[in-house]
Amino acid sequence: LQFSTQLRHALERNEFELHYQPKVDIASHQLCGAEALLRWRHPQQGLVPPGGFLAMAEQIGLMAPITNWVLVTALRQCKAWQEAGIHIPVSVNLSTRTFQTPRLLERIEWALQEAGVPGDCLEVEVTEQTLMKDLDQGAELLRKLHDLGVHVAIDDFGTGYSSLSRLRHLPLNTLKIDRSFLSERASREDDPVIVRSIIDLGHNLGLQVLGEGVENDTAWNLLESLGCDAVQGYHVSQPLPDQRFSSWIQDGG
Ligand code: G
Ligand code: G
Ligand code: MN
Ligand code: NA
Questions:
Q1: Which of 42, 106, 129, 220 has the fewest CB atoms within 10 Å, i.e. the most exposed one?
Q2: pLDDT of residue 13 exceeding 80
Q3: Where is each EAL domain found (predicted)?
Q4: How far is residue 192 from each of residues 54, 159, 186, 199, measured CA to CA in Å?
Q5: What architecture (CATH level 2) is domain 3-250?
Q6: What global pTM score does this model have?
């Protein structure tokens, strides 16, 4: 069978899974959120990461149903965490095209209702590039998400070309420092001018700042010394299937 045909059947065959990567508050070391990351359990190829199929999903018109599935599954998981006494929001990534879909807001409202959770259980992650497109429509969507209580994070920050005056006027919550700035080499530099500047920029805009791709103590210590709020990365944990995520929490993170 063709890959695209298999992809068309993946939803009904229940072949998608979400893995959850913990986000941890730097000061308290407490779990403060989790990012849902999509994987396809392909019958022959094993676990396929999103880079291997999302572009095709977009091409063949499957992005909307896949995104709906991701939203509902992530929010139901968030509800299950709540019932177990763990009160953290779940973060879902949105592609540029998805973010530009006029009906996205309705679909998010539907997913919240379907899972039976309030808007503040959800954070959406969109890249800088996405935010800088379609300026008026994007701003309106962000205001409506804000009214629903849904949080918005800017993903991969520092790799795009943001208009700072635009960022300033958007209702955003979190800025995620792209992992390239926290690589082994980058986090050892004598003067971490970029990381420092991004953290200060985020704070000056009233945003929480999270460092992503934290793989070692060097990067963690750098972020801590610069007043960053939260971290995510292999140093804390890889993205985990739901059962293993729960065990990770029970084992004290
Ligand atoms: O671990 P990782 O290979 O999961 O993710 C690769 C890329 O795929 C990242 O840029 C991430 O934002 C994106 N991604 C992961 N899950 C989803 C999803 O559910 N929807 C969209 N649109 N992108 C996702
Ligand atoms: O683009 P986005 O930030 O949504 O993508 C997250 C991607 O980063 C996923 O592919 C995830 O598996 C990966 N990731 C998470 N933690 C780390 C890390 O510590 N190091 C590296 N290299 N990748 C990571
Ligand atoms: Mn992300
Ligand atoms: Na990112």
A1: 106
A2: yes
A3: 1-253
A4: 34, 16, 8, 11
A5: Alpha-Beta Barrel (3.20)
A6: 0.97
pLDDT in tens, 164-220: 888 999 999 999 999 999 998 888 888 899 999 999 999 999 999 999 999 999 999
Ligand 2: residue whose CA is nearest its atom 9? 37
pLDDT 10s digits, 37-85: 999 999 999 999 999 999 999 999 999 999 999 999 999 999 999 999 9
Check: CB of residue 215 under 8 Å from CB of residue 196: no
Q: How many CB atoms lie within 10 A of CB 51?
A: 7
Distance from C-alpha of 162 to C-alpha of 205, rounded to nearest angstrom: 13
Helices (H) and strands (E) in the chain, counts: 11, 10
**Could you tell me if 173 and 153 are in contact, meaning their C-beta atoms sit under 8 angstroms apart?**
yes
- 3-state DSSP call for residue 87? coil
Residue 32 pLDDT greater than 90, yes or no: yes
**Rg of the chain over all Cα atoms, to the nearest angstrom:** 18
Whether the per-residue pLDDT at 1 is higher than 80: the answer is no
How do the domains of the chain map onto residue ranges? 3-250
Give the residue, by CA position, lying nearest to ligand 2 atom 23.
Answer: 213
| CB 95 less than 6 A from any atom of ligand 1 | yes
Instruction: State the Cα angle at 133 between 131 and 138, rounded to 5°.
Output: 60
Tell me the angle at which helices 104-115 and 135-148 cross, rounded to the nearest 10 degrees: 20
Mutate to test the pocket of ligand 1, among 38, 59, 92, 94 (most ligand atoms within 8 A of CB): 38
